[in-house]
């Protein structure tokens, strides 16, 4: 029986997805965490914890280094909230182009017998523009960015995409009508709207700053529903103050953005739909079950993707440092134990490597001893022995 601990309100569809091999919230010494926004930085991770799955695309709330040292694989659920974010970004572009927030505020604060006359007289101040024919720069065309780009194109916008890390899978998702820019400056140069959809890391923090804003048209509208900090708020406010930008729409509040008519802030609701929460919970549950039962890895933050069909009776998985002779040490130990390797796969992600070893014959008394000895190899974070339930 595997033990699952949940944090936050996890959609019931995800919890129901677990099979009868899993117990939910019966102990703190869990095999897996299924989380959303809880901040795990301030709490220790139990030695039993093999996997953390976050129902969402970000992982700033997970202590990656601590998890790695604990031998815990960390996963996200990319794409589970992509449609929700796409719809909100498109809605914000419509709202920006038609001055909807200012118009609604005007209507909410005007009443009286002559409201119709005053409305007819005053409404011209809210005249806007149509999105069709305007240019949108999409920075990052992964799960969300590709959907935004395609939706904007279908609305008749001219879409320019920039993503230096564009994968072949992502390229297939993008309409052939969308132009590809060779640089960030080229992408934003003539854009009426700029929207960012990149992960937050050292390279993308402050991605849109003073220099980038200076390349844009003075009536540009910037949209950030990716992560706080990707757009430099100080530079953004300065551009607005000096009429170098028209507006800023973001899901991430900050003191410097308060009380401005040219800034609209929403309370981190980009992925907050019933459908997105259900998708993330189900995908998270599937990720946990796949990793615990087969050891296969997809969409991990701290492990490389490694998926190998589980066709033998037993499987050993090892999470270890990416240093020379690790595979040699592991193979030598197995040979000394008289264990024949049916198949071995290894991959690395930066400083961490992951090894899958399939074996068909294993004496029962070897189980505990083998895992203990493999785990005792210097630089091994965690060793596991899996049994193929389909062959029992």
Topology:
Blueprint (H helix, E strand, L loop, with lengths): L1 E5 L5 H4 L6 E3 L7 E4 L15 E4 L9 H6 L3 E3 L6 H16 L2 H9 L6 H8 L12 E5 L3 H12 L3 E5 L5 H6 L5 E2 L3 H5 L4 E4 L13 H5 L6 E4 L8 H9 L5 E4 L12 E3 L8 H21 L19 E8 L4 H11 L6 E7 L2 E8 L6 H10 L4 E8 L5
Helix pairs in contact: 3-6
Organism: Secundilactobacillus kimchicus JCM 15530
Protein name: D-3-phosphoglycerate dehydrogenase
InterPro entries: ACT-like_dom_sf (IPR045865), ACT_dom (IPR002912), D-isomer_2_OHA_DH_cat_dom (IPR006139), D-isomer_DH_CS1 (IPR029752), D-isomer_DH_NAD-bd (IPR006140), NAD(P)-bd_dom_sf (IPR036291)
Which structural class do you get from the secondary structure elements? Answer: alpha/beta
Strand content: 15-25%
Provide the gyration radius in Å: 25 Å
At the fold tier of CATH, the topology name of the largest domain is Rossmann fold
User: Which outline best applies?
Assistant: elongated
CATH class of the largest domain: Alpha Beta
Proportion of helical residues:
25-40%
Question: Any idea what the CATH architecture of the largest domain is?
Answer: 3-Layer(aba) Sandwich
Main sheet makeup: 7 strands, parallel
Secondary-structure element pattern, one letter each: EHEEEHEHHHEHEHEHEHEHEEHEHEEHE
**What is the total number of structural domains?**
3
Mean pLDDT across the residues is 92
Our measurement of the CA-to-CA distance between the termini, rounded to an integer number of angstroms, reads 16 Å
Give the beta-strand count: 16
CATH superfamily of the largest domain: NAD(P)-binding Rossmann-like Domain
Q: Oligomerization state of this entry?
A: single chain
Query: Number of helix segments?
Result: 13
How are the strands ordered across the major sheet? 8-7-6-9-10-11-12
Give the low-pLDDT segments: none
GO molecular function: NAD binding; phosphoglycerate dehydrogenase activity
Protein name: D-3-phosphoglycerate dehydrogenase
Organism: Secundilactobacillus kimchicus JCM 15530
Family: Belongs to the D-isomer specific 2-hydroxyacid dehydrogenase family.
